[in-house]
Every structure is written in structure tokens, then in C-alpha cells.
Amino acid sequence: MRGKDLYIIQSNVTGAIKIGRSKDVHKRLKQLQTGSPHRLKILIHVPDKGHLESTLHNRLRDHQLKMTGEWFSPDCLPDFPDWLYEMLDLEKYEWWKG
After folding, report:
1. pLDDT tens-digit profile of 80-89?
2. Which long-range contacts (CB under 8 A, 24 or more apart) does 85-90 make?
């Protein structure tokens, strides 16, 4: 049986980063989009690695934003573990371009 997937989602206006886990990442993106006035996009989707969510939240806690939910400042990305940072498509990361 498959586990939950790890995802990294970003707001195209604020650059805020959401780190979470879900069995259906695209469905989760749609749910988050409903509550967001800004367009959200998936930066990273890692199958079967949802169990790493809390480890990442702990690692990045100094970058946590004071918002509802578990959102982080975009400057948290360099503090990702190397294997995860290397998965970033830097073209997608250019959130300031909208």
C-alpha cells in the first residue's frame, strides 16, 4: 500500500511555502487554492515521503509565518535538506514573476 506524498506548494504573489502531505497532491492543491486569493503551484511532489513532513516543519520552524496553517517564508528553501533542494525547478521558484 502506498504512503502519503510530500508536497511543497508556493503562492505566486507572497512566495509563501506550504509543506504538507497528501494521498492526492493535486486534489490538495485545489483545496488550498479555494482558500487562497493568490495562485498556488506545486514546486515539489515526492511520492511516498509524506512521513518527512514533521521533520521538515521542525527544521524550518525559524522561517514559519504567522498565518493560519503551516506556511513558511520563501527564504526557507536554502535550508531544505540537499536532496530536496536539488529537486527544485528554479524556473518555477521564480515566484516574483507571478
Report:
1. 999 999 998 7
2. 87/44, 87/46, 88/43, 88/44, 89/43
